[in-house]
Amino acid sequence: MAKVTLDEIKTAHRCIEPHVLRTPLVHAETLSEQLGHQVWLKLEQLQPTGSFKFRGATNAVLSLDDQQRARGVITASSGNHGPALARAASRLGVRSVICLSHLVPENKVANVRRQGGEPHIAGHDFDQSLIECRRLMAEQQLGLIHAFDDPRIVAGAGTAGLEIMDQIDEITCVLVPLSGGGLLAGVAAAIKARAPQIRVIGVTMENGASMYQSIQAGAPVNVEEVETIADALGGNIGLHNKWTFEAVRDHVDDCVLVSDEQIRGAIALLFDAQGLVVEGAGAVGVAALMSGGVRCSGRAACLITGRNISTKQFLNVVRAK
Ligand SMILES: *Cc1c(COP(=O)(O)O)cnc(C)c1O
């Protein structure tokens, strides 16, 4: 089984460095006092388009050969990958088509357009938009860039782990929000190659966690998608998963589940204690520490992965506390 290596992540880092933000890793003083844990936050929500996805998207576009660059790229994504790919492509002068279903709200469609991508609306759900994505890809010879199951995406996401290793000594564990597993596969590869004793902990929501269920089952399984405050963590890992399932299975030391209620508490606490606006998927690491379900003595680094939450939803969560 092929896996992304530390060298590939280092190469990705050199390539994307001029284009992405080297995000700060900050000691969260108030949060640490409240949690009784020394907590450091890797602020990936500061990346262009508001999530770490910009790292992988930029690496994928930079990896294209001249012919593919001239033709353009395509993906199906209703979450943070679509705008990230649109921006990475447009900044590098490459055409991008982002397939979205009729379910996707107009503000997300407008955001893809604002980032320089071409939204292509087809189908009544994600699976139908994926079928349309494959059809268009073949018809127009566009390069498919999957949101997570792609070595270019894994290597790009892994650069966040590389930076953590440069930014802090003596961490005990790293908490990584987990959905398709591109981020965890990359971050774990970067960290374990240098310091295998550091615990890499995946955190995901209680309901609709495809990777968690797949690891339990020993093979990729589909789960029903349910509504959650951590909407960016929804979706299946794919029954024909090529890159992330085995990487996550082999590298993850522990996988912690958090409830929507706990995630809401973490969003409110990150704002209250640290003045940060974080979306549900980005707050699950802090939710896991708050829940007491994480075994980690010493310094913990949490990847804060995104900030794309609507004003309305954010205010609801913060007001409820
Ligand atoms: C995509 C995403 C994740 C999960 O990343 P995977 O590589 O799919 O595991 C976590 N947080 C945010 C904000 C995301 O957009």
What does this entry show, briefly?
The chain is α/β, with parallel strands linked by helices. Helices cover 46% and strands 15% of the residues. The strands form 2 sheets. The protein has a 6-stranded mixed sheet with strand order 1-2-10-7-8-9.
Explain how this protein is built:
Helix content is 46%, strand content 15%. It is of the alpha/beta class. The strands form two sheets. A six-stranded mixed β-sheet has the order 1-2-10-7-8-9. Strands 5-4-3-6 form a four-stranded parallel β-sheet. Strand 3 (73-76), helix 5 and strand 4 (96-100) form a beta-alpha-beta unit. It binds pyridoxal-5'-phosphate (PLP). The site of pyridoxal-5'-phosphate (PLP) has 20 residues, from helix 9.
Characteristic key phrases:
binds pyridoxal-5'-phosphate, 10 strands, six-stranded mixed β-sheet, four-stranded parallel β-sheet, 14 helices, globular, alpha/beta, single chain, about 325 residues
